[in-house]
Amino acid sequence: MKRFLSVLILILCSMQMLPALDVKITGDPIDYKLNETEINGIPYVAMADVHTLFKSICKQDRGDQRLYLHLYGETFIFLEGSSFYNFKLESYSMHYPIQRIGAQYYLPVIFMRENLPLHYASQMRMNRGKLELSKPINRNVQVIVLDPGHGGKDPGAVGRKLKVQEKDVNLAVSLKLKRLLEQELGLTVLMTRSDDRFVSLGDRTKFANEKQADLFVSIHANASKNSSSHGAETYYLATAMTSDARAVEALENQVVELYEGGVSARKKYDDLDFILSDLSQTEHLESSNELAGNIQLNLVAGSGFYDRGVKQANFYVLRGAYMPSVLVELGFLSNPEEEAKLADPQYQERLARTIFEGIKRFKFRYDRIRNT
Ligand SMILES: [Zn+2]
Q1: What is the predicted pLDDT for the residue at 185?
Q2: What mean pLDDT is predicted for residues 84-100?
Q3: Which domains, ranges and CATH numbers included, belong to the chain?
Q4: How far is the CA of 56 from the centre of ligand 1 (A)?
Q5: For the whole model, what pTM was predicted?
Q6: Does residue 230 surpass a pLDDT of 60?
Q7: DSSP notation for 39-60
Q8: Regarding beta strands 104-108 and 42-46, do their DSSP bridges make them parallel or antiparallel, or are they unpaired?
């Protein structure tokens, strides 16, 4: 027993001897510690501990050795055994390779001390050996970007009978939806446009990423050559096999080139941009599908529009968004009956309410999952 105790004390002592990275969150009275583990003489932190602290998520790509770390609305791409990683189209070094022991990944402590504060300069800094975080760690849906499709020189679809312009319907419904989300859920709602102006597709998702939005909802109205086409449908981004394959290949080459030394990341900017566009949504496919499902269900039930279902398509406007993203097609402007409804402010209010109910339902479930 005595011997057991002395061994135990020895173990406890040696554990206490292990250094730890102190973490301080502004406004949080508790001090946090990230325990350090030595691997090949270099201090590392366990990815699981990083997740606990930041409520971050990892996704491992089976088949290759890539690891995607999603943290504060951004994605880091690591390659097992490599000290280089990709972040926002650029490659960076963290001096020591990411390590895997069993199923557990380890990040060099230097990544936490130097690289993270570099990437999130406004949210964290090292101060007297402590990592200070100013951003509260709350993964609830708080910021929603609404994207009224088209605008300015681009009218979108034009009604057959009343010549109603899609851009106007999209904006009217979005503004009503914004009010509901703000007033009834207290969310921050940002608009890619609040008036009749042209915004490029790329700028719409870029805006959502910059604002670190939790959801991206693009509002559109449909049109068809066939005036009898009718109903509502909700889309999320397709998993395009061909582009996925191309993306994986290009990224592989780039990281390997960097790992072997030298070639500039800029050279492959276009490819990488393309890759990250795809990756960004791949990670959110399930959530996007669920958001689309919730919106579609409520939209159809509340509007009386025919249910065309939840669909996948490769919409450019959804690509590159680092958050669950959907595109709603409210109804058909090419259908005279639906055109009249889409142009009616009261009906627009009703449509906004149905989408609101869909988002609300999604948010409640999503918040619970993300915070446990
Ligand atoms: Zn449209």
Answers
A1: 87
A2: 92
A3: 18-133 (3.30.457.10), 143-239+273-370 (3.40.630.40)
A4: 34
A5: 0.61
A6: yes
A7: ETTEEEEEHHHHHHHH--EEEE
A8: antiparallel
Q: 289 C-alpha to center of ligand 1: Å?
A: 20
Q: Give 298 Cα–ligand 1 centroid separation in angstroms.
A: 20
Distance 225 CA to ligand 1 centre (A): 15
CA of 221 to the centre of ligand 1 (A): 6
Q: What is the pLDDT of residues 183-204, one digit of tens each?
A: 998 899 999 999 999 888 778 8
What are the Cα distances from residue 162, in Å, to 64, 224, 333, 336? 55, 15, 9, 8
| Coil, strand or helix at 137 | coil
Ligand 1 centroid to 215 CA: how many Å?
19
| C-alpha 220 to ligand 1 mean position (Å) | 4
Task: Tell how far the Cα of 154 is from the centroid of ligand 1, in angstroms.
Answer: 10
Cα 211 to ligand 1 centre (Å)? 23
CA of 202 to the centre of ligand 1 (A): 15
Q: What is the mean pLDDT of residues 146-165?
A: 93
Q: How far is the CA of 167 from the centre of ligand 1 (A)?
A: 8
pLDDT in tens, 354-363: 999 999 999 9
Residue 153 has pLDDT above 60, yes or no: yes
Alpha carbon separation from 148 to 31, 180, 281, 298 (Å, rounded): 43, 16, 20, 19
- What residue type is 369 in one-letter code? I
Distance CA 317, CA 218 (A): 8
What is the average pLDDT value for the chain, to the nearest integer? 81
